[in-house]
Specification:
9 helices; Rossmann fold; 4-stranded antiparallel sheet; alpha/beta
Length: about 300
Amino acid sequence: MTDAVIVEDLRRSYGAVQAVRDVSFTVAHGEIFALLGRNGAGKSTTLEILEGFRSRDGGRAEVLGLDPGDRATARKLRERIGVVLQDIAVEPYLTVRETIARNAGYYPTPRNVDEVVELVDLGGQARRKVRDLSGGQKRRLDLALGIVGNPALLFLDEPTTGFDPNARRGAWQLVRDLRDAGMTIVLTTHYMEEAQELADRVAVMSAGTIVAAGPTASLGGRDAALTRITFALPDGCAVADLPVPAALVDGRVSVESTEPTATLHQLTGWALERGTVLAGLTVDRPSLEDVYLRLTDQATPAPVRDLEGSSR
């Protein structure tokens, strides 16, 4: 079965500015795919092309087997995708339920309106007017409008902006449930924790091109990076006394290792022999945020490295 989204050598310019430069990626059916990048990196233009809201200058774009730039199939595509933008214009004097019900009427096989109200945790607000909702509640309404048409593919642009931590985690679970039910999801987010929690694969854009792509666990070589062990230097000890090579970084001992289990065994054994503790002990590899910042800080974008096998 063909991929849900296929993008090959996509290009779009605004005058002399190349907003999207030879971008290529695919999104499998039933996958959550995150497109990451700073403001102005080209994410929004790329998604707008895929959603059929903007034309492209060159390259190939295919969404659910259709060309999003083909006006002849535009309606068919709109009936099969859901779109949650950062700011959706809705009638402020309609109630939550009325707003969702009106949108449901645009689709041939919509989800049950009351079911959608409950899914996005607006059951207690169904009869409230849109104008009276909080920012987070309006964002939940945006999500409801995106899924009420029962789409095969859902585009989410910064889906949890304005959510408190509890609401954000609730939204994450909803997105996972939609994926588990067979929906394909393409999202953008500035929350690296969100991308790591949700995405099966990610692509990082910088200056209009993709600089890295692959699973979150291995993006930018995360899986092969050195493990960093840090702790407070015990009283009366010097760094030179430690059983492994170490350095002081911001007042804490820092040890980098390719064999963290063996290194921890040496350090804890040394501490136990001396009756001391390694206070504030932490063990970690570079986070997705660390990798993202490194990739987007590069002055000249490198060719895309698809960690599942090919270079583009």
